[in-house]
Batch of 3 targets.
Target 1
Amino acid sequence: MIRFVDIRKEYDNGTKALKGISFRIDDGEFAFLVGPSGSGKSTIIKLITGEIAPSEGRLMVNGYNMNNITPRQVPYMRRTLGVIFQDFRLIDKKTVYENLTFAMRAVGATGRDVRKRVPYVLDLVGLSRKADRLPNELSGGEQQRVAIARALVNNPSMIIADEPTGNLDPKRSLEIMTLLERINELGTTVVVVTHEKELVNRFSKRVIAIQDGRLISDETGGYYNNEQEI
């Protein structure tokens, strides 16, 4: 669960990135976070992942109070999240299987855990036959599927997908979004940050729209409003 209560964020250079944002995303929800460049979306993601702290307001992430979270608690909070990036961020010299194994080992998983979890997640994203491939041997869509698998491999309660289809063609973008929808149906909370208006409009989901550091709409039933200059 994510809860923003009148969150304001002002950076050291004086930029007021968020100007009193309030919204809540409950466990099991699927939500799009949309808005133009500079609207505050990246700041929201950095707040959720604990990269930065709010200037004012109250922020809760998966049971952690981000206003007074300790440095020791941050890694445990982050284990509740799986983050997917636009540029994949895979380890080039490791195979698909090794990329996922590395992510599990980083949080202390046993060999038995790895042998059980990695094949399951690869099957979920449709890459069981590509486990021994290197990232540069895969298409862009396949690399993004590996990134999704890596985000899922430690069984987080929430997936944050930051422009996950930004480097993909429309067909592959639709495939990735359909996969994220399936992951949500299996019980994982999914938050997708995107600029892709047509893609958002194909899915009847909650759309949280940000502009100039403010929440301008929050509607379930999903439509990226063309009347708003986003």
Target 2
Amino acid sequence: MINLYNFMDGMDGLAGGMAVVGFGTLSILGYLGNDTLFFGLNLIVAAASAGFLIFNLPRARIFMGDAGAYSLGLIAAISTLWGIERKSFSPIVAFVIFAPFIFDATITLAMRALQRKSLWQAHRDHIYQRLALSGLLKSRVLAIEICLVISCAVSGLIVNSRSTATQMFTLASIGAAYVIIAAYCNSDKLAHPPAPSKTSS
């Protein structure tokens, strides 16, 4: 989760938006499960992220940087493991909630590996990067990404009380959708800009 947050912190508002929605969803699950402590602590993280997000939306006046991305990734990992241990939700639901970051980063790296590209070299192959470089306004790309984030969060809330099979089907469907989106974004239908020369996340 630390690396995923760092990988995805490449556009104004994206990592902050994921934090607001993701931790906000965890707090709702804590509330529904009558876990006051879990609810309160995740609500604090969501509220703090919202305060940051106000100044991080395009064009950003402040930036998260590695310190912010690493911290949020670590807190996301701790909170999800904590919630699972306290039986507020299942591991599958946790994956569904943070699916936009998990699938975007993981599928992008997998596709680069299949294409025999370096996994350590700086690149612009993430879905949000491809969309931004295709000519769309950054504000529109952010809106698309936040809609995906909210959709996954709502899906997590809906399937939390459903069977394991339903949860697995939901996660698999989201994963399949991201594979299709990633394949489209890496096709000739979108621009293929040269990767930057310096190392970056």
Target 3
Amino acid sequence: MSITPQTRQLAGLDGLQLVIDEWPAPGPLVMLLHGGGQTRHSWKDAGSRLTAAGVHAVSLDLRGHGDSAWAPDGNYGLPALRGDIINALEQLGRSATLVGASLGGLTSLLVAQARPDIVERLVLVDVVTRIEPAGSERIRGFMQSAPEGFADLDEAAEAVSAYLPHRARPRSTDGLRKNLRQHEDGRWHWHWDPAMFQLPQGGSPEGNPLTMQAELDDAARSLQVPTLLLQGALSDVVSDEGVEHFRSLVPHLRVERLADAAHTAAADDNDAFTRSVLDFVLEAPNS
């Protein structure tokens, strides 16, 4: 059963407008942070299922994505994203479990390092500090592959199917409307700011995940909160070697492999993903 969330705005770093979907519930707070090129709607099924189990779920559009504002200075580096999430959590007024996929996961890692007082648990969805360059380049290639947009939603659906060959193509294209903007000329463009690619991913050299290996490793070493890695067994972004490197930094790390999932793990196997998150969030302390 789908539960309709409440949509509202929060202020990110320097007052940048952020848009969230919120499923209020009396239980612990879980903030869901999507990957690069996605939107808060990537979590709609997970949000409904979490709140049905009593979890207060919040899904946020990262800066430059979805309905959140575009950075006027083109700053999409990890430190700016970290500042946005810290500000958002402060406005929500509660500590939270952060569930971050890809770019959202790396941001969550930096938030947990900077503000351990507002992060209770951490779930990383198919992302570690040492990602596979080929998989990362495939993501960047897809995000930059249609600078002129698409003539219609069917053309966009074909592009998604080619990018995600392991996933069956949906019968309807209606779901794509949340991830695309229709311009005045009638063409459809992805719902993110192209400026984030004017420099290496992140918008500024020092904010690029691929050039922040040392900083991300340091953040991982500092983790004290319970941490779960959900690895997509079909992923080309997170390898077993990458997982073992991350485990060497985070000795208390738990790892679960989602057998039918690739890098887009939450959508690839939503049932397994949601069960794992619920079990982790609702378990007794120190269990």
